[in-house]
Amino acid sequence: MTTYAASYSGPSVADYLAAPAYPSFDLASVYNVALQYQGVPYVYGGATPAGFDCSGFVMYVYAQFGISLPHSSTGQGAAGTRIALADAQPGDLVIMDGHDGFYAGNGNILHAPYEGAAVRVQPIWTSDYYIVRLGI
Description:
Blueprint: H1 13-18, H2 27-35, E1 47-48, E2 51-52, H3 54-63, H4 73-78, E3 81-83, E4 93-96, E5 99-105, E6 108-111, E7 120-123, E8 129-133
Antiparallel strand pairs: 1-2, 3-8, 4-5, 4-8, 5-6, 6-7
C-alpha cells in the first residue's frame, strides 16, 4: 500500500462526516465542490486530495455534505435511487461496472479515471452505465 496519505494533512472523510463543511445538500453544490479536485492524481485506494480512486473521490466529496458512502462503486450505486438519463443533473452519480464518477452534463463524467491520470471531465465512453441520485 502506498503512503500517499502522509502528504495530505487536511480533513478526512470521517472528519467531514462528523462536521460537514456544507450542511445543506443540493446537486449543484456537490458538483461545484467536486470540480475543485480536477487535476488530483489517481491513486488506487485513495480517498483524500493527495490522490483519489473513483469511489474514494465520490465518497470524499459527498462526505463534505454529511453523506456517508462506502468506498465502492457498487456500494455507492446501491446507496441511491436509479433515475432516467434524461433526468440526470451534474452531481448525480454515473455507475459503471467497477467504476463511478459524477455526472457532468451533456454525456460527460467527472471522475478519477485510472493510474497515471488525474481527476477530469470527459465524455462517457460506454453505453453500459446508469445514473443514481443520492438523497431522494
